Amino acid sequence: MRVGHALRVLLVVSLCACHRPGSHGSQGSNGAGGAGGARGPTVGVTVEVPGLRAEEVEVSTTDPLEQACRGVAHVAHLHSVSQAGRSSIDVELEPGADVGAATAELERRVRAIGASLAPSAAPAVVARADGIVVARYALWSDRRTLAELEAFQQSELAGRFGTIAGVGRVATCGGAFERVLVDVDPVVLQGMGLTVGDVVTAVAAAPAPGAADALSGVVIALLKGAPIRLRDVARVLDDVVAPPCSAFDARGGAVSEGVVQASAVADVAAARSAVEDALGAVVLTLPPDVVLRRVAASRRITVDLRPDSDPGGWVPLRDAVAGGAAGVHALVEVGSADNGGERDASPTEARVLLDTTDDAVVARVLAAVRAVPFVRSAGEASATVQLLGADPAALAAAGAELTRRLTERGELVEQLGADTRWATHVIVDPVAVRRLGVSPADVDLALAARQGTPVGTYRQGGRVVPIVVRLADHAALRSSERTLVPLEAIAASRVELERVTVLHEDRRPMVGARVHGADLAALKQAFTPPAGIEMRVVGD
Description:
Elements: E1 42-48, H1 54-70, E2 75-83, E3 86-93, H2 99-112, E4 125-128, E5 133-141, H3 146-162, E6 167-173, E7 177-184, H4 186-191, H5 196-205, H6 212-215, E8 219-223, E9 226-229, H7 230-233, E10 234-241, E11 245-249, E12 254-262, H8 268-283, E13 291-294, E14 299-305, H9 315-325, E15 330-335, E16 338-339, E17 342-343, E18 349-354, H10 359-370, E19 375-379, E20 383-389, H11 392-409, E21 412-416, E22 420-428, H12 430-435, H13 440-451, E23 454-460, E24 463-470, E25 476-478, E26 484-486, E27 491-499, E28 501-505, E29 508-515, H14 520-524, E30 533-539
Parallel strand pairs: 7-24
Antiparallel strand pairs: 1-3, 1-4, 2-3, 2-28, 5-12, 5-13, 6-12, 7-10, 8-9, 11-15, 14-18, 14-19, 15-18, 16-17, 20-29, 20-30, 21-29, 22-27, 23-24, 25-26, 28-29
């Protein structure tokens, strides 16, 4: 049983309003173009790959997906992002291309190679990119929890937007999400001669697993004729998990933001008017301690965070924005990638949305944000500088020099594809697996439990709630001789330096930077790349 994507068409929980590196197109290979050239429609392909780091996602999933996508008729450009646990590809079509036919062909090709992707890869989601933003709003409360605000998003907003012609999707930022957590006790499990594979199999096979109370009674094995239930070997509880994107209001309290996008072929004016009417009706249904406010993002600041930033320490950033804004309404979004169902420990990007056109306010906010210790750079991005080349080492060196030059010029807003961080990985010894007679599938299950990967779902009302089996340590596997083998006998932990994000532009490795610079021709003169590396400057 694999986790589905909740309300795929209507409500897509995503990195709300995040910049997707490399997704600005590449009109022309040499010029500072892209700002005025005709752009075709875009279809997105996303695959969740729990448990893999970015470079493993690139090799196992992104590369074969790119090859499959490239074979579709009328493809102009491919922009891909490989991150820990996720592969995303934007397939930009030629202007005037038949989007329906291209989407159907993409689905067929992606489905055909599904078995050749990483073993942990979930089914690909193929969907046409939606149109422009028609409304942005925030639910705020100083008494309600994030999970309660997410429930309001689902019950009060999702249904109304679903009836509006022209609405393509709603992305949310800030609502916490429910899950059922099966926290396995390894000592009790091994004492009964069972493995985490037995637990996962029982949970996945449960006909209607339901919430924690119902799931805890599932029988996972018989011991001398007596049933061993899930609650006998694990704590089973209804849990709330932090969102992959967090939103902060200067007032404090819980914030859940929503962004409504028109469908790609919608009458935008009509969709905007209908959404505004729906939001006005929602205001009348909310309890008095929940406030709905429209968010006018007149100015948008991108904030580049250090990869080792503390995910629990965003208060200094929020306070800096509040102080600089001085009464102007501001919203802070801190986004991170999903990583095997768990929140990534090191978000690298934030956004500040300001309801003002006053340059002095923007300057004050920028000065305050840049003084926060874990902020590397910040600014209003107006262009992307891309470096493309086949040699990863040369590309990394060129990217570092580009970053240095742009920093000196005061134009750097955000680095793209250059960040690395130390991470702990489990390395499995295939020789030991064969020698001890352990099933590779059981090894995958044990590793997934160590990472807290969802193994199933259940429906509660209109929501799809994931079920996570977690085994913190001392996992054991069953050998071919029916004995228990500790995971440590076949696997070892290793601390390695890994890339946070791997970017491709038209199947070529890419690094670069987001910059604030109106003169694109001058940006091209900021850096002369070495031989074998191409530089593009693409205006927003």
